[in-house]
Amino acid sequence: MTAIDFNHQLISLESKLSRFALSLTSNKEAAQDLLQETYFKALSHKDKFVGYSNLKAWAFTIMKNTFINNYRKQQKENTHNDTTKNMYFLNMSKDIFSITPDTEFTTKEILKQIDSLQDEFKQPFKMFLAGYKYKEISEELGVKIGTVKSRIFFTRKKLMKSLKDFQ
Predict the structure, then answer these.
(1) I need a surface site. Which of 13, 21, 32, 135 has the fewest CB within 10 A?
(2) In the predicted structure, residue 37 carries a pLDDT above the cut 60
(3) What's the whole-number mean pLDDT along residues 124-135?
(4) What is the mean pLDDT of residues 28-45?
(5) d(Cα 48, Cα 129) in Å, to the nearest integer?
(6) What is the CA 95 to chain-centroid distance, rounded?
(7) pLDDT-based confidence at 31, cuts 50/70/90?
(8) In the chain, what are the domain boundaries?
């Protein structure tokens, strides 16, 4: 197969590759990027394409593998190492920690609502927010674990009811 034939056949697959890219990414711009990257890789490695092979299947495989590799790379970039004793890996977006005046106001309102709770609900809830496990809260406060769970549950319900504007 000549280079011109290869290019024409590859370009003729554009609509099918575009639909496949959109089905993978669910985002028009990301699908266009994936399509361009697929074309780039196909053209860069056309010497590896054997003329009697199925070009359509080859191009779709390149696209699928590119998508998977990009996804894995993105997941790896979003994995942060937690330095606690147990060394858990946390998957969090880097954007979580962006503080704006709007989030500052929201946080103050939520904390104000938490502080207005009765102590029997406020204390376990604050400990839970601080990262304590149910068992640790139970031992610290000297109450049964079921009581801790129910207090945290009811506190969440109260907060959701009082903070309807933030949902």
Answers:
(1) 135
(2) yes
(3) 88
(4) 93
(5) 55
(6) 11
(7) very high
(8) 3-79, 99-166
Question: Tokens 């207005």 sit at which residue?
Answer: 116
For the domain covering 99-166, report its CATH number. 1.10.10.10
Tally Cβ neighbours within 10 Å of residue 166. Answer: 11
Q: Does domain 3-79 have CATH number 1.10.1740.10?
A: yes
Distance CA 71, CA 45 (A): 22
pLDDT at residue 99, rounded to an integer: 59
Tell me the three-class secondary structure of the chain, residue by residue: CCHHHHHHHHHHCHHHHHHHHHHHHCCHHHHHHHHHHHHHHHHHCHHHCCCCCCHHHHHHHHHHHHHHHHHHHHHHHCEEECCCCCCCEEECCHHHHCCCHHHHHHHHHHHHHHHCCCHHHHHHHHHHHCCCCHHHHHHHHCCCHHHHHHHHHHHHHHHHHHCHHHC
pTM over 0.70: no
Contacts of 32 (CB under 8 A, 6+ apart): 18, 21
